[in-house]
Amino acid sequence: MRVDQRGIIKTVAAQGELGRRIRDMGLVPGTEVTVIGRAPLKDPVALRLKGFTLTLRNSEADFITVELPEDDLV
Questions:
Q1: How much is the CA Rg of the chain, to the nearest whole Å?
Q2: Residue 67 and residue 65: Cα distance in Å, rounded?
Q3: Average pLDDT in the 20-42 region?
Q4: Coil, strand, or helix at residue 12?
Q5: Whether the Cβ atoms of residue 1 and residue 56 lie closer than 8 Å to each other
Q6: Is the pLDDT of residue 74 over 80?
Q7: Whole-model pTM?
Q8: H-type helices in the chain, by residue range?
Q9: How many CB atoms neighbour CB 67 within 10 A?
Q10: What is the pLDDT of residue 64?
Q11: In the structure, how many helices (H) and strands (E) does the chain have?
Q12: How far apart are CA 61 and CA 64, in angstroms?
């Protein structure tokens, strides 16, 4: 996803401790997220969801499937 792009979480494929940790952070299916920034080397990524900002490593974000709104697919 690009900076300022928003989407809806569809699935979280991580299992075990990592899956629990991701879901505990509020990253659950149906949640709207917006990418608000990236570090200079593109890792980690800063997300805005449920009124707070969360940073996530790309290796963790790889387990999350997000659906983009049709008007934001460009």
A1: 12
A2: 7
A3: 94
A4: strand
A5: no
A6: no
A7: 0.85
A8: 16-24, 58-61
A9: 11
A10: 96
A11: 2, 5
A12: 5
